[in-house]
Request: fold
Amino acid sequence: MPPPSLPSPAVDIQNLSRSCNRILILSTLSSGPHHGYQLAIEIEEKSDGAFRFQHGTLYPILHKLEREGLIRGDWMVERSRRRRKSYRLTEAGDQYLQEQTAGWHEFLDRFAHVVERRKS
Amino acid sequence: MPPPSLPSPAVDIQNLSRSCNRILILSTLSSGPHHGYQLAIEIEEKSDGAFRFQHGTLYPILHKLEREGLIRGDWMVERSRRRRKSYRLTEAGDQYLQEQTAGWHEFLDRFAHVVERRKS
DNA sequence: CCTCTATATATCGAGCCTCTATATATTAGC
DNA sequence: GCTAATATATAGAGGCTCGATATATAGAGG
Reply:
């Protein structure tokens, strides 16, 4: 079945938080598979503690991304290890990430055009 | 009386939309007084139609900014003109705008640090 | 062996914010 | 006088994040 309709790929001012959270996660996954807990830790470290995913935020986002077919999670069961769900980027997810990144830059340009030039 | 406690001056991933909306408005006001309707039109034009304030979004934000003492609105009643409320930036608002702008750039740096370098 | 902490995932309710829709009033054009 | 554009205001609905809570396992220490 086709993935449920994606949230609009455009980066709007109304959904910046969601866009950023999704980009952070997808972008991190683009460097290789991660499980949820690991994503939160890595993103927090890379941002010097600025971007901290609460658990109640992270997992619902992951579930939604998976429902949309942008990421895929597989349960990893190794001995002497807690069960973990390893997520990796799908091809659709990779494409979506590129669109979102482009949309993000476009947003920044427009925003700067309205804001920055007033400084003088 | 002191203004009600401001939303944290830091630009967090959780309140990007609000931060951006506030920066757009305060920044536009920093170039001179505007009334609400005029703000919406000017911001929409400067952004090539990307940032459109719905009325139900704009006015509550203006009211909140005024309650917080960041802007001040005065009713202008001229003959042969509808009554309008002219908003201008207060000193506190100007300082807040600078903090928010700095916070916004800091946020962008951190975000880029997590996201951008994965491209290669 | 048992407890505590860290790892790991999951979900619910509350709160905040924006959007849509609706309401009111005035001015200008037809 | 009627309609459209100007101008402000607010209530209700929906989406998203957060804080709290729950469950379960592995490793460390007593």
